[in-house]
Write a structure and sequence with these properties.
Layout: H1 26-34, E1 53-61, E2 65-72, E3 78-83, E4 86-88, H2 91-100, H3 103-107, H4 110-113, E5 118-119, E6 129-133, E7 135-136, E8 143-144, E9 151-155, E10 171-177, H5 180-183, E11 201-209, E12 211-212, E13 214-221, E14 229-232, H6 239-251, H7 257-272, E15 275-276, E16 279-280, E17 337-339, E18 347-348, H8 354-365
Parallel strand pairs: 4-17
Antiparallel strand pairs: 1-2, 2-3, 5-13, 6-11, 6-16, 7-8, 7-15, 9-10, 10-11, 12-18, 13-14
Length: 369
């Protein structure tokens, strides 16, 4: 949870957020459920979080139980917890690190061990294409916009194919109208102000692609302490890799740079053509003066794949069942060790993974009781 009002020692200054940044996120849901909101009943049923504890490893003990070894991050005290079922949900970086430090790793076949921590993938998302507009629609369908109007729209690809069987639009489009409401609720007040003409309506769109798992990316344990991760992740700014490897695996097609720029710009122009008095803030996608290079270095905010379930190397491949977890999210060869986070995903979806995570939670619920 982001707290911009803390002193260097971590204590609050004169205020403290009880809501997370963003319109909605998982952290906010957990905060409300565990009762961090003032006045909540601390004795009711719900989720309990053990604070100031670091999970060191998970070890097998007799009768198919597991020992969760933890260290108190303040006192250094080591405490163990025992359960017949354990769920790891530390994310695509920390979950494989934990598996590597646990006895279960040694029990995995060699070819499965080689998958732990590898396949790290995110969905490539372009930089925003922005413009000021006055209204949307034509004639009697025209709708005037004001700065108090806000909207977030998602254009989902139908997956239609061209005559060669390739996916025409292997991306979704996210569009925001006056997006400050969506991105900047309770934002860090110490951040630099965004350059903006608040007398006008601003619309931005960005293209979000899916991505098959990439075995050239991975999480390595640091040689010195086995805690700090070394992350190998190819930069999305390397457009040649996307065009020659990633997008062919996802959509089947191979395009040159200019073909790709043309696809983005033609689609961008179709979207903005629905608005009136369009005044572009950003240039077209492309290379050179006045153009916008589509992708940055890449991020791992929606990373996945480091503890994969059954997966496909590309859209035309058969499912590969050599995986770290099975379709019940259970680590192979174990009786009650599950993983429920983005690390098990067999593909990085074009859309943000809210529904995917909900689906994983529902699948996990079938095996817990």
């Amino acid at each position: 949870m982001h707290q911009p009002y803390l002193n260097p020692d971590g204590t609050p200054q004169d205020k403290f957020f009880v809501e997370s940044t963003g319109v909605f996120n998982t952290a906010e849901l957990l905060i409300n459920q565990v009762g961090l909101t003032p006045g909540a009943d601390q004795n009711s049923k719900g989720l309990f979080i053990k604070l100031n504890s670091f999970v060191e490893s998970i070890q097998s003990v007799p009768f198919d139980w597991y020992e969760v070894k933890t260290t108190n991050t303040i006192t250094g005290e080591q405490v163990s917890y025992y359960s017949p079922k354990v769920v790891i949900a530390a994310g695509s970086t920390e979950s494989p690190k934990l598996i590597n430090r646990s006895a279960v790793y040694q029990s995995l076949p060699d070819h499965i061990q080689q998958l732990v921590g590898f396949g790290l993938t995110d969905h490539p998302v372009t930089g925003e294409s922005q413009a000021y507009v006055s209204s949307v629609g034509r004639n009697s369908s025209r709708i005037d916009l004001s700065r108090s109007d806000h909207a977030k729209l998602i254009f989902y690809s139908r997956g239609n194919r061209d005559v060669n069987g390739h996916v025409i639009y292997p991306f979704n489009i996210e569009m925001n109208v006056n997006h400050e409401y969506w991105h900047l609720r309770n934002n860090d007040l110490s951040a630099e102000p965004i350059v903006d003409d608040t007398s006008k309506n601003r619309v931005d769109i960005k293209f979000s692609f899916g991505n098959c798992l990439d075995d050239e990316n991975g999480i390595f344990s640091h040689a010195n302490d086995n805690y700090t991760p070394d992350i190998s992740f190819k930069r999305f700014s390397n457009l040649n890799d996307l065009l020659q490897s990633r997008f062919p695996a996802l959509a089947g097609w191979s395009k040159g740079q200019q073909e790709f720029f043309d696809l983005l710009n033609q689609t961008r122009n179709r979207v903005f053509a629905e608005f009136n008095d369009v005044d572009f803030v950003t240039g077209e996608y492309g290379e050179g003066t006045g153009k916008q290079w589509p992708f940055g270095w890449g991020t791992v905010h929606h990373s996945c794949g480091t503890l994969r379930m059954a997966w496909k190397a590309n859209r035309n491949a058969s499912f590969n069942n050599e995986s770290v977890v099975d379709e019940d999210l259970k680590v192979r060869g174990t009786t009650g060790l599950y993983i429920c986070d983005m690390s098990v995903m067999p593909i990085s979806t074009a859309a943000n993974p809210v529904l995917a995570l909900a689906g994983l939670a529902l699948r996990l619920s079938n095996h817990l009781g």
